[in-house]
Write a structure and sequence with these properties.
about 140 residues, mainly alpha, about 80% helix, about 5% strand
Length: about 140
């Protein structure tokens, strides 16, 4: 990689495309893992007769289901936010005379610059999946 991070945390970028490409790759991998885990873990619980019996007999079944659903829903929400923001930025770049100063395109630009939204939703997804997994393991190991 031709860019580096200095000791004070600033970036010396010789080719910003490399940073973005790396970010894009990690972003895709993380989304894939979130979707795979958020859908796959409940499917495993539901299709394994022994695990399904243990988990459904507990009082935490609804909580576990809600947490997995919440994590997946957060990722869908994030994808929708990013998709719409990027469309607004794309359209504004292609049609500046039609979009100049219009609030919805300013909002799209603002959203596209807000890294914290992705970060907070990713952390919330991790927490949601982590709590669901903890409850599941707790139930299975206490009752299995």
């Amino acid at each position: 990689m031709s860019g580096t991070i200095t000791s004070n945390g600033s970036a010396e970028i010789s080719d910003e495309r490399e940073f973005y490409s790396t970010y894009e790759d990690y972003s895709k991998v993380l989304r894939a893992w979130f979707v795979a885990y958020g859908v796959g873990a409940p499917v495993i619980l539901a299709t394994n007769d022994r695990l399904a019996a243990i988990v459904t007999a507990s009082s935490a079944t609804r909580c576990i289901s809600a947490l997995f659903l919440a994590g997946v829903s957060l990722q869908i929400l994030l994808a929708a936010i990013n998709k719409n923001a990027m469309w607004g930025c794309y359209y504004a770049a292609r049609n500046p005379e039609k979009t100049n100063g219009k609030w919805r395109f300013r909002v799209a630009q603002w959203l596209s610059e807000q890294f914290w939204i992705d970060f907070v939703i990713d952390i919330a997804t991790l927490i949601s999946f982590g709590i669901a997994t903890w409850h599941t393991f707790d139930i299975v190991f206490r009752n299995g």
